[in-house]
């Protein structure tokens, strides 16, 4: 709203400026007309024809007539001279660029004045009254020899051509400035709106994260508290197996919390790029095999299975053992977590060689993701908000971490997915050539 106001203000200010300038220019043109009138009148009066011997003979009335005929501006200035005078007058008021047409007319007793001189396009120019301006005519006082003021008998018309162009020209600077300011204001406006939206999104994400985290921690804390209560019980205190059972629970829950805290810490460390990677030649197939074995139990529980198609002939990359294992772990963990309830999990992990590269595919038959989710899965704290996902726990850090690790190993990661069908994560890493014999 205020942006619109500012723009409107600018426009109206410019418009006023144009009107003002136009007035100024018109006034100047009027001035020119006045200057010319004064000049030419003076010029006409100055001139006295040389004394004529026949003066006495010619009847006074005729003489006056003769004199006035010879003493017209028309008779005394040719076209170019008149033009020069007009140009000079224009220069004097600072309108030297102005184009113009002019006409010199003589007064006659009849309804039409007689045209004495006329510039080439005068007729045409006089028809366009919109872009051209015609100041009041300059009347040139007749000098017919009499001492008293006589009525004017010659008129000079000037038509200023396209005078608005001159106005515009003198205003281009301010117009440009106005446009520039407006652009800056618009840009600032959009940056502000963009930042605001981003902030809002970040706020939502943070909120989600905090909700998630409290939820995640509440369960182990409650469990530990219950276990401690049970330990205080006399009956349990005397029973060794029960003692170790409850302390086992406490230990387990404690480890779970510890893992969660570590995951958060890890993510923020990667963010700040504080992590030092210890890159060594690593056989990727071994890591994948290890993780697959680890998940075997979980998979069997859901009557699912993992299919390994590790066909790459070269699986050696330079990688940090710990972080790379975490990476694979996260991907497999997601595939198990985001599986469909009633369908046995089928996780396919395959490897392939491309020139200079190792390509890994993690394909699942889980719930899949929408296009929007696919775009955002690698964002920190992002979790899809759909349906039964709420009972699956997580912080939305896993894939963000996976991406960070991939990038710090000069790799790339992308996701392909169909909602309801499954997802495939495709990773590419440069092969380690230095270790090859
Ligand atoms: N294999 C998958 N199939 C379907 N959706 C997935 C899959 N992997 C990830 N997602 C979606 O992407 C979101 C982000 O995943 P990510 O691993 O980053 O976080 P998380 O699993 O929710 O939590 P965390 O891994 O930090 O415990 C998930 O919440 C889920 O909506
Ligand atoms: Mg995850």
TrEMBL record:
InterPro entries: HATPase_C_sf (IPR036890), HATPase_dom (IPR003594), His_kinase_dom (IPR005467), HisK_dim/P_dom (IPR003661), HisK_dim/P_sf (IPR036097), Sensor_HK_Regulatory (IPR050736), Sig_transdc_His_kin-like_C (IPR004358). GO terms for molecular function: phosphorelay sensor kinase activity. The chain crosses the membrane at residues 175-197. Its EC number is 2.7.13.3. It catalyses: ATP + protein L-histidine = ADP + protein N-phospho-L-histidine. It is an enzyme of class 2 (transferase). SUPFAM superfamilies: ATPase domain of HSP90 chaperone/DNA topoisomerase II/histidine kinase, Homodimeric domain of signal transducing histidine kinase. Keywords: Kinase, Membrane, Phosphoprotein, Transferase, Transmembrane, Transmembrane helix, Two-component regulatory system. The keyword Membrane applies. Residues 212-433 form the Histidine kinase domain. PANTHER family: HISTIDINE KINASE 1, TWO-COMPONENT HISTIDINE KINASE. This is histidine kinase. It comes from Niabella soli DSM 19437.
